TrEMBL record:
Assembly, per entry: Part of the FGAM synthase complex composed of 1 PurL, 1 PurQ and 2 PurS subunits.
Source organism of this protein record: Hydrogenothermus marinus
Entry similarity comment: Belongs to the PurS family.
Example GO molecular function: phosphoribosylformylglycinamidine synthase activity
Protein name per its UniProtKB record: Phosphoribosylformylglycinamidine synthase subunit PurS
SUPFAM superfamilies in UniProt: PurS-like (SSF82697)
Xref: NCBIfam families: phosphoribosylformylglycinamidine synthase subunit PurS, PRK05974.1
Localization per record: Cytoplasm
Catalytic reaction list: N(2)-formyl-N(1)-(5-phospho-beta-D-ribosyl)glycinamide + L-glutamine + ATP + H2O = 2-formamido-N(1)-(5-O-phospho-beta-D-ribosyl)acetamidine + L-glutamate + ADP + phosphate + H(+)
Enzyme class: ligase
Any one Pfam family match given in the protein's UniProt record, by short name: PurS
């Protein structure tokens, strides 16, 4: 199975990279850009056939190694082979 993690800064947390991208887009004429958040996308392939077990494993991975829950929010999805 494939676990796809989508991670972004929490609301209210400074995101200098997102700010730089937003300013660059505005300077290129994209005046409607209000805000940009720059995050991470991570794929983890696991040898698991039980989707419920994969979900629990994904939560543990996020908690222990992938996400800094003080400054980041995340979502994940499980893709079955």
């Amino acid at each position: 199975m494939l676990i796809k993690f989508y991670i972004k800064p929490r609301k209210g947390v400074l995101d200098p990279q997102g700010r730089a991208v937003a300013e660059n887009l505005r300077s290129l004429g994209f005046e409607n850009v209000k805000d940009v958040k720059v995050g991470k996308y991570i794929e983890v392939y696991v040898n698991e056939t039980n989707k419920e077990k994969a979900i629990e494993e994904a939560k543990e991975m996020a908690k222990k190694a992938i996400v800094n829950d003080i400054i980041e929010d995340y979502e994940f999805e499980i893709v079955e082979d």
